[in-house]
Design a protein that fits this description.
434 Repressor (Amino-terminal Domain), 13 helices
């Protein structure tokens, strides 16, 4: 018995490598398997060996036992390689389904863009000609919401590649929200813009400036948006390699999340907090992290 195989190989890779190691062709391996199994019906033939090696088929336990004997392999190694192949197939199937879902979502976003764009245009037209202040006030709110939606639709439909168009809509939403005096709507658009900076342009400095600005805008208007802004501030610091600042921002975000969850007792919020808290365990000597840990323990006991 030899042990030169890689334990994370698929069964097809293991069979092919072992066969070549012994200097056998696929025809010779098929013949040897017929001989050792006593089969006289022509099974397996070369095409069956080829299907095993290409991963189109996984040899059954019956054939794995004979393969072990002919190829001088451990039966356990073949069984493990077969399991690796099944896992690989499951991942490939999952990736395929995920890709299909992503394409379907992008198509839905793309189909929404013309109608959403028309609605935004109508709102802007009506706001431009509205004579009464309270009507303009409400239309600014509608414009901010519609422009934020358009920015997100465009960015998602373009697979997050059309950064400039998306940012143009987010800037329009920010201006409309300012005109109305809606800090939450302004902060939401600014937060969306920070996502483009961080994950589209890959510019953590610009993203950091935007997330910090968002947190300032929404500090007294929305704890949720402020918490998300501070969380992405931590992400920007991490991208810049600023570990201490990253931990400080992450703990600040968790404090805000705990503040909200202490009131709402939402199970989703609890799960997010517990998961994030575990990620900070490596910095448990930090006094800020310890304070967050204590608050999480108190939240669990309440």
């Amino acid at each position: 018995m030899t042990d030169w195989w890689l334990m994370d190989q698929t069964v097809g890779e293991l069979i092919a490598q072992a066969r070549e190691h012994l200097g056998k062709s696929q025809y010779a391996l098929a013949a040897a398997l017929r001989e050792v199994s006593g089969r006289s019906d022509g099974v397996p033939d070369r095409s069956m060996v080829a299907r095993w090696e290409t991963g189109r088929r996984i040899p059954t336990p019956y054939w794995r036992a004979h393969l072990a004997a002919v190829l001088q392999l451990s039966p356990t190694a073949l069984d493990k390689a077969a399991a690796v192949t099944r896992q690989w197939r499951a991942v490939q199937t999952g990736d395929s389904h995920h890709a299909q879902r992503s394409r379907s979502e992008r198509l839905r976003y793309a189909l929404l863009i013309p109608e959403a764009s028309q609605c935004l245009g109508q709102v802007v037209f009506l706001r431009s000609y509205a004579g009464r202040a309270y009507v303009r006030h409400e239309l600014h709110a509608a414009e901010a919401e519609a422009a934020t939606l358009m920015g997100q639709l465009v960015w998602d439909a373009s697979q997050r590649r059309d950064h400039d168009t998306a940012v143009g809509y987010f800037d329009q939403a920010i201006e409309a929200a300012r005109e109305r005096g809606d800090r939450a709507a302004e902060g939401l658009a600014a937060l969306r813009k920070s996502f483009v900076a961080l994950y589209g342009w890959r510019d953590p400095k610009a993203g950091l400036a935007l997330t910090q600005r968002t947190a300032g805008i929404t500090a007294a208007a929305s704890q949720v948006i402020t918490g998300l802004a501070v969380l992405h501030t931590a992400e920007a610091h991490a991208m810049l390699g600023e570990r201490r600042e990253c931990v400080d921002a992450a703990t600040a975000s968790l404090h805000r999340a705990i503040d909200v969850t202490e009131v709402s007792r939402g199970a989703g919020g609890l799960n997010v907090i517990f998961t994030a808290g575990r990620q900070l365990q490596r910095w448990q000597q930090n006094s800020g992290v310890q304070e967050v840990h204590d608050r999480i323990m108190a939240l669990m006991a309440a």
